[in-house]
Amino acid sequence: MNKTKMVGTIGPNSFDYTIIRNMIVSGIDVIRINMTYASFDFAKQVILAVRKINLEENVNTGIMLDTVGPVLRIGGLEKPIINLEKGKMIRIVATGIIGNSEMISVPYKEIITHTKVGDYIFINNASVKLQVVTKNDDTLVCTIKNSGRIISESTLHIPTLDLNMKFLSKYDEEIIKFALEMQVDYLALSNVKEEMDVLDVNDILISLNDNNIQLLSKIENRHALEQIDRILKVSDGIIISRGDLAIDVSIEKVPQIQKELTEKAKKNEKIVIISTDMLASMEVNEVPTRAEVSDVANSVLDHVDALILGGETAIGNYPVEVVKTMNSIIDEVENSIDYNDLLHEITRFENINISKAIAYSSVDSANRVGAKAIICSTMSGSTARDISNYRPSCPVIAISPNSKVVRGLSINYGIIPRIVGMAENTDELVDLSIQAARRILNLQKGDKVVIAGSFPLESVNYTNFMKIEEIK
Known about the structure:
Largest sheet: 8 strands, parallel, barrel
Helix content: 25-40%
Low-confidence stretches: none
Distance between the termini: 23 Å
Number of strands: 21
CATH architecture of the largest domain: Alpha-Beta Barrel
Mean pLDDT: 91
Strand order of the largest sheet: 1-2-3-12-13-14-15-16
Structural class: alpha/beta
């Protein structure tokens, strides 16, 4: 089982129960719904389908919702996908028309007013580049600089334009409330610029008495880069959204930024996820390019928590095949990693507490004895996350009686979360742990597992014991 997790986005080409089930069976750990493109009814149907599949397959697939955020987007189009041809002209207007290959709309008249002749405009995560050649009070006339595809509500970015838009719209507030109602596990916050954006969402969750949804800040603009330390402090993790980021800081800087953000997130013990065009060519082709395989492999070698499949599964022609392809790349790369060297590279804490000391020792012991799994009992998920942060060589089977805690671990590196009843003592915990590991990993006689947990549960809220067991 792969330790680097996969997030699959559901869209028109994967909105089918059998396809979603096959994506999950093929390795998807978290199902993502981007509320920019999805209705509440669509999202509800997907969530209910995932919950049913989880029961049928005895898995714990997480659910992620993306907020819309203060991002400029074009209006609706007359077809699901519109192809734009290099060298042709296209008009951008502020009226609410249904767009096509010759004219598209934007929701703000200020865009027309403040954009200048010569400015570049990027659409659909920078897959299409336009340049303004002339304008009047109501229209921008642009030349298409490269052929590409756009879809309804595609992102629109003008690097020279910085509109002062409110972070949370009324619609985003409705998305947050819907997420709570449907017991979603992760909220991906679009276009975060500063820590207050995250805190505003956190305030809403507190007011609604929720402390289970994890907040993932999408890093997609230069403001977020400047405030990354503060954003990391108040977020559960970050999503490095390379498409919009490439527009704001220039594309050649993105690989280094990705590596720097990855290391910073791991050092701060935060979830780190890579997004945008991991296997983009597989939207229309059954096999990826060699460059895409290398891109996925390098992210795995950087030991990120997860990789996102966006358009590849949402609008691509091969949603299940792309999941299998990414899964095989991850598997191949992870088999080549020296986990002992990796553990030594990870910075240890100056003021290490008991839980982290045991987490480190559990990983070190598992690596040294060739354990098939580290099994940990957790009530809040913190024990499993501590172990995951040390990037062990074997899976981390996190057992808990709390279903929300279990689903909330679905995106963390190496963790296989499972719902297991409450143990009354350490002997029972060991028995429950080994039973869970046997079901998941088909353990054989002589296999070793490392077991970590805390006892007594009613009076200890940190990890305080570790045990190595050999399967009899």
